[in-house]
Write a structure and sequence with these properties.
CATH architecture of the largest domain: 2-Layer Sandwich
Structural class: alpha+beta
Shape: globular
Largest sheet: 11 strands, antiparallel
Number of helices: 6
CATH topology of the largest domain: HIT family, subunit A
Order of helices and strands: EEEEEEEHEEHHEEEHEEHH
């Protein structure tokens, strides 16, 4: 893959175009009369009851909300006056979010006594998977899906090199039921100035597992799932997809490389191909589960050299528990983080196995 084509939006934000071979990007000047960027959009506040940072980003109240298709800000904007993507067409594009939860450079100071807060430094980017407004990731051809993976990989490496970024999180929210307000196929990339609670918890569990058993937790979990076999959805020489033994969500699938790597950056060319293919396979099974496309969240868990127990993997999850019902995170889940599953992981795995 060649390096992305870089440009600037009207308010100075970065935009990067990733292109398939023989299809060069076609950016045009962004001529929108955008207001100047506020250098500090958000604030971090420390919750002493949990030991976690909370992002306060009031500017996001003004973000674009369910526009009609002909006003979609993620569709190509060939005039340079209508879109966040001023271009005649594009394959994959990444740009800084106009309404970011985190922005600016800088790290966190140690937490003192009393109420602790800090500037909401970090980076929030939007990644558009295609210029096709009505498409989806599952509908991409394999080379195009591989290009998205390359874009994730590029942004992970570049963001981790920036001062103050502790974790890079690539993810997709798909479906209005999940809370999506722009239906154009896209995801997001966050550069956090701290380690997120979920990641910190998993790494703690992995360190404890190493002390007790002398092995990597994620490697052992994958080995147990393969040995059991009942929840395996798809498996190649390079990757394995399975419903986890203790799945929390009505539909939940994890994708692991068969060898230990901490992030997309360390995958070789064959593994990148294999990952894109298996990822498409799982998403296409999702879309065949029910009469309407499955709403889902896709979360890429990546780690750095400073987190030696971290094993790269993807967690896909959906709140749809049947063709007509959703799983709402109510009292037990939202207030106590105690998940109650309405279906067995084995029944979900069996259904997804049938959809091969």
């Amino acid at each position: 893959m060649t390096a992305p084509t870089r440009a600037k939006l009207a308010d100075g934000r970065d935009i990067l175009f990733f292109a398939l071979p023989g299809h060069p990007p076609q950016p045009v000047p962004d001529r929108r009369p955008l207001p100047p960027r506020d250098k500090q959009h958000s604030e971090l506040r420390f919750d002493r009851t949990t030991g976690q940072w909370v992002i306060i980003a009031a500017l996001r109240q003004d973000r674009t909300y369910k526009p009609p298709p002909d006003q979609c800000p993620l569709c190509p904007g060939p005039t340079g006056l209508t879109s966040e993507v001023p271009a005649r067409d594009y394959d994959v594009v990444v740009f800084e979010n106009r309404f970011p939860s985190l922005s600016g450079a800088g790290g966190l100071s140690p937490v003192g006594d009393g109420f602790a807060s800090a500037p909401g430094h970090g980076r929030c980017e939007v990644i558009c998977f295609s210029g096709n407004h009505t498409g989806s990731f599952a509908g991409l051809q394999a080379p195009h899906a591989r290009l998205v993976v390359e874009a994730w990989r590029h942004r992970t490496a570049e963001l981790l090199s920036q001062p103050g970024i502790e974790q890079v999180f690539c993810f997709e929210n798909r479906g209005e039921e999940i809370g999506v307000t722009l239906t154009h196929p896209h995801g997001q990339i966050y550069g956090y100035p701290y380690l997120t609670p979920r990641t910190a918890t998993m790494l703690h569990q992995a360190r404890e597992h190493r002390i007790r058993h002398g092995n990597n937790l994620f490697h052992d979990l994958l080995a147990h799932e393969v040995a059991d076999g009942g929840r395996i959805i798809a498996r190649s020489d390079l990757f394995t997809a399975f419903v986890p033994f203790a799945a929390r969500w009505p539909v939940e699938v994890h994708i692991y490389p068969n060898r230990f790597v901490p992030s997309l950056i360390e995958l070789d060319a064959d593994e990148l191909d294999g990952f894109a293919q298996l990822y498409l396979d799982v998403l296409r099974r999702f879309d065949r589960m029910y009469p309407s496309p499955l709403p889902y969240i896709s979360a890429l868990h990546q780690y750095t050299d400073a987190q030696p127990e971290g094993y790269f993997h993807v967690e896909l999850m959906s709140i749809r528990r049947s063709a007509a019902a959703l799983k709402y995170l109510a009292g037990s889940e939202s207030a106590m983080d105690a998940f109650i599953s309405d279906v067995t992981p084995e029944s979900v795995a069996e259904r997804l196995q049938e959809l091969a």
